[in-house]
Write a sequence for this structure.
């Protein structure tokens, strides 16, 4: 077993930014472990631009953002074990990983878990019918096209209005394929408004809200889908069925944190985010294990994932130096109109920022962080939408009553 | 005439209300910054966009290299530019930032590489 300082799991925009921050703070021993042979995470396949405005002050593509972070890390001499997959973490912070040279065990003073998220797949949305080829998650279709130069098909239907699906609708259209329509189960789009404008509207691709695929047709390869409108309870309405022929169905039905290794370690998981429950220092229920980026909760922007990971790095650095205030006692829970909020715990010793998503699109709303009758913080929003993560600063909470975040 | 648009310049996605006055002037509200007002004026006259794609690489460790436009071009030029992008190939090694097509179709924008591809080892 090897003894190391602070170990970062995952070399995406969160993990790399954390490692760079740790070195700049003066941490001497920083190790990054990455499953793939290259660093950059999901950014490597996101070739469209719209990254980096916050961190680098310009709009660049995913691979460029990844390259800038990589060169920062290289300049600081950060050690990165690529091609190495973390299999397990134990409560005493021992990491077991499979590397090209065999299984390695590393004990860390602190761990920052930034292993990203995965896509919801057909299994998690249950469409009846055949299981022919030609059904892909949006991220898989994106990797096919952008990393391996393989066209998924010529005539596509997209289920779900997540950002990856919207971006793939444009990419397929530009490469000469036909995209008949995008269908979204909810009554509001899931992706960013800007992607609806520049990926669908620009190319006259229709978006049908409150619609879903109710059947997949075809034996070996998909030949078409049946689509139905849904009612207020998201149940298909009889008589609204319509057939669309296609050779490809792309699922863009959401991302969810990949918490496998944390859950196995015994870290408390928040059922509303599927990521770890963390306190305002981004520390999980196991002391010395921190989490950030899409592994904690799904972010809209790589820049925000990087910024959150930098905050985790500051706290992990304090923890490793024995200076972090680790008393954790109060719960922060999502209340009226809020689908989830991070952190889910606070020490109560200092101010904190709640990052949250609302349940529905509304105008002129105030988001409040409150403890009993006391308002710890609030912020007014002309418009709140579920597809945009928002944040509210709050002052330290006293006493032992739970804190609630609500939309008013 | 009033119309609602979503600003696509940055991810804040402000909802802009454009009021097109009879004399052709446009008054804008709801923009979080001046870039939003400028964008909507362009959007109403000649909308501009950027795109990303990939280009084949000869003799590289990878088959393709990702590319994008260096600046936005009029939306109506997107498909003709895609035809140009499909026609070219690059020779490895390709470095990030390399110009693959200079001033494509006289649009003022270059097609640039957004990743690097090393030459294949013999
Ligand atoms: C299609 C798409 C479009 C997007 N568009 C934009 C945009 O326009 N602008 C923008 O700013 N953001 C955009 N985003 C969001 C942005 O890409 C993410 O927020 C960001 O990549 C999250 O970073 P991360 O480091 O948390 O996760 P990731 O990038 O997923 O990195 C996680 C890393 O951990 C590694 N890993 C996983 N498990 C293990 C393990 N067990 N052991 C070792 N390593 C492991 C993975 O290989 C990966 O490299 C988009 C995302 C997608 C998917
Ligand atoms: S108006 Fe300014 S702040 Fe608002 S989305 Fe456009 S560029 Fe961003």
């Amino acid at each position: 077993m090897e003894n190391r300082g602070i170990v970062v799991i995952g070399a995406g925009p969160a993990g790399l930014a954390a490692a760079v921050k740790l070195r700049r703070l003066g941490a001497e021993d920083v190790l990054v472990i990455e499953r793939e042979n290259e660093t950059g995470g999901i950014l490597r396949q996101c070739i469209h631009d719209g990254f980096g405005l916050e961190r680098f002050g310009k709009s660049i593509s995913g691979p460029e953002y990844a390259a800038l972070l990589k060169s920062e890390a290289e300049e600081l001499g950060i050690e990165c074990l690529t091609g190495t997959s973390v299999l397990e973490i134990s409560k005493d912070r021992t990491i077991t990983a499979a590397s090209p040279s065999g299984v390695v065990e590393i004990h860390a003073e602190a761990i920052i878990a930034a292993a990203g998220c995965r896509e919801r797949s057909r299994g998690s949305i249950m469409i009846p019918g055949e299981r022919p080829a030609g059904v892909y998650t949006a991220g898989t279709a994106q990797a096919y096209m952008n990393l391996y130069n393989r066209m998924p098909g010529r005539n596509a239907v997209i289920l779900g209005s997540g950002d990856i699906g919207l971006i793939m609708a444009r990419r397929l259209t530009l490469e000469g394929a036909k995209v008949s329509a995008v269908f979204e189960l909810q009554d509001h789009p899931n992706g960013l408004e800007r992607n609806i404008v520049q990926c669908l509207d620009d190319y006259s691709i229709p978006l049908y809200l409150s619609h879903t695929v109710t059947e997949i047709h075809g034996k070996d390869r998909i030949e078409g889908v049946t689509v139905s409108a849904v009612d207020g309870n998201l149940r298909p309405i009889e008589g609204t069925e319509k057939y669309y022929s296609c050779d490809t169905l792309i699922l863009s039905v959401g991302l969810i944190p990949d918490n496998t290794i944390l859950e196995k370690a015994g870290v408390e998981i928040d059922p509303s985010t599927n990521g770890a429950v963390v306190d305002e220092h981004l520390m999980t229920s196991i002391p010395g294990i921190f989490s950030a980026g899409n592994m904690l909760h799904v972010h809209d922007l790589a820049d925000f994932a990087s910024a959150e990971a930098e905050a985790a790095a500051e706290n992990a650095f304090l923890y490793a130096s024995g200076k972090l205030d680790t008393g954790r006692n109060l719960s922060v829970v999502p209340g009226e109109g809020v689908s989830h909020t991070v952190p889910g715990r606070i020490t109560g010793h200092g101010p904190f920022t709640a990052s949250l998503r609302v349940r529905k699109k509304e105008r002129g709303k105030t988001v409040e962080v409150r403890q009993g009758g006391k308002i710890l913080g609030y912020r007014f929003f002309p418009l709140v939408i579920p597809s945009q993560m928002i944040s509210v600063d709050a002052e330290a909470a006293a006493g032992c009553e739970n804190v609630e975040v609500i939309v008013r | 005439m009033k119309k609602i648009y979503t600003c696509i310049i940055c991810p804040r996605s402000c909802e802009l209300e454009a009021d097109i006055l009879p004399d052709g002037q446009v008054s804008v509200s709801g923009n979080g910054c001046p870039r939003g007002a400028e964008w909507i004026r362009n959007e109403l006259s000649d909308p501009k966009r950027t795109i990303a794609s990939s280009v084949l690489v000869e003799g590289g460790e990878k088959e393709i290299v990702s590319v994008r436009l260096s600046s936005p071009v009029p939306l109506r030029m997107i498909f003709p530019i895609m035809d140009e992008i499909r026609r070219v190939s690059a020779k490895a090694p390709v470095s990030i930032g390399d110009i693959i097509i200079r001033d494509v179709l006289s649009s003022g924008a270059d097609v640039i590489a957004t990743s690097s591809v090393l030459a294949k080892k013999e």
User: Anything to note?
Assistant: The first strand of chain B starts at residue 2 and ends at 6.
